[in-house]
Every structure is written in C-alpha cells, then in structure tokens.
Amino acid sequence: MIAALPRRLLPEGLALPLAGLTLALSLVMLASLLLGAGEVTPTRALAVLAGGGDDEARFVVGSLRLPRTLVGAAVGLALGMAGALLQAVSRNPLAEPGLLGVSAGAAFAVALALWLGASATTLRVAVAQAGALAGCLCVLGVARLRGLGNDPIRLVLAGAAFSALLAALTSLLLLFDQRAADEIRFWVIGSLSGRRLADLLAVLPSLALALAITLLVARPLAALALGERVASGLGHRPGRVRGLVVLAVALLVGAATAIAGPIAFVGLVVPFAARALAGPDIRRTLWLCLPLGPLMVIGADILSRLLVAPSELSLGVLTALCGAPVLILVVRARRLPSL
C-alpha cells in the first residue's frame, strides 16, 4: 500500500523505511494488546484476539488495552508531527512542545477549565488547543527576538522558565479547590491509563484538520528552510506559512494534551530519529514521524506497565528517559543537526 502512494506525495526512497517502521509499529501495537500489569496473560489475551477467551480477558483487551493503544498511537503521531513542524518553522532542533512550554500552556488551560468546573471532553480539547496556541505564539515570538532565536540553548532555557511558571500556576489551582484537585492531579501527570475510545473520537476532527494543514505547508516549509527570500521567490508567503504551522501545532499538541496530559520529549526524539533516517528535508521527516511517534509512545507505555507491575510508572517518566540523552547529545554536538 505504501509503495502504491503517488510519487508526488511520497518522496523517493522512503517506501522501504516506511514499510519497516509500519511493520515495527504493528508488532508494538500487538504487544500492547497482549501485555499488561494485570492478571490477563499474553496467552489469554491472544485467545481473545483469535475470537475466543473468557469474559475477563475480553473486557481487559477490548475495553482497556485497545482504547489505550489507539489513544497512544494518536498521541504519538500528534506530538511527533508537532515537534517536526515546530523545529522546522523555528529552524531550531531543540524546539519541542514539551520543552518550550506549548504543552504546558495546553495543560494549564485544561487544569484551569477543570478547576472552573468543566468536565466535557470536547470542551477540554478546545480549551487545550487554545492554551497550546497561546504557548506556541509565545515561543515563536521569543524565537524571533534578536540574539535569542538563533541560540537553541537560550531558547530552551526561556521555554523551561515559561513551563515552570505555568506548572507553578497549575499547582496553585490544586490548593484552592480540593474537589477538582484529584482530577487535575491525575490528569497533569501524563498517562494513557483509563483512556476510552470516546476520548479518541473527540480529537479525531482536530487531528484530521492538522494533518490536512501539514500536507498543505510541507512544500513551502521545505522552501522556507532555504531562506525567506528564496521561499518568496518560489511563490510562497512565509508569514502565511508560519501562521498555518502555528495553527497545526496548536491543534496537534492541544489534542494530545487533552486526552493524555502533558508528555514531554516525544516531539524532540521523533523528529531527531526521522532526520537521522531520512535527512533534513522536512517532507521526508514528516512522513517518518507518522509511524515513529506512535512507535515511541506505545513502546514507552508498554514499559510503564511492566517495569513496576502490578503498579504503573508515569508515561512521562519513560519518555523523559528516552528524550534526555537525545537532548544532551544535541546540546553537546559541535554542530547542531541541519534543518
């Protein structure tokens, strides 16, 4: 199916890597259905997938593990694509939604909405996307400040300060309303536990719109990497391209944060790995982010269930363990990866 995609959509030479990553993602999703911290063993779960199994196993696989796996795939896709877009538009390999405060903006907006009494999932998604949009605008505004946007480390430090401020404000909300404190505390740690298919259905329109915008801006972004004058000479409008990218990132990060909470480093690791496999062309990077994002999030979620079974680790802890070495590698490199 991948090989049959039109040549104008799929860059040359990507069919084989995409096929390999898609196969790896399929195996990881299968493992997510078979493995867990509870008493349903892989053998019992496999019997359910074969059409049999007992009632308990069918409930665990169909009502708990399947929604969790599908939500994890959507979250990974959204954060991986958002990271690639944000890095491309800011021309900064450290521009990651979790590091720069975009996820924190979405998280604070949802926490504030929950504190004010909101509980509907659709409202939560809209609020998270509004918070992500505000955070994204702040990040790009800072990136365009003279002397700061060209320094990746200083930009990350500014983003870390912004994230810390929003985290402090979120913690402050917990002190004012004990009724909402438990729900906010459970949500802001970042997890796929207890997620339902309804959560995924609530964000599908946003994800579809964001992917359509990404398809629209992929070629102009590749031209923008050569410089604004070159992009303008090729008939593109840099300002409009940036505006569309900001909208797409807000939709993606807001949707992911609304259904799974703030999860850092996915938007850093996934584009980094995609560029290592496919080179600096943003169009090739975006294609590889499609399977790499879900692969990372679902893989980390499986480990979160198994490492301290029968309890679970926070998903954000596992993604941080994967992302911190990549962050150190990029910072210590003599030359930052070309974008």
Automatic annotation (TrEMBL):
It is a multi-pass membrane protein. InterPro entries: ABC_BtuC-like (IPR037294), ABC_transptr_permease_BtuC (IPR000522). Keywords: Cell membrane, Membrane, Transmembrane, Transmembrane helix, Transport. Gene3D superfamilies: ABC transporter involved in vitamin B12 uptake, BtuC. The keyword S-adenosyl-L-methionine does not apply. Pfam families: FecCD. Belongs to the binding-protein-dependent transport system permease family. FecCD subfamily. This is Iron ABC transporter permease. It comes from Bisbaumannia pacifica.
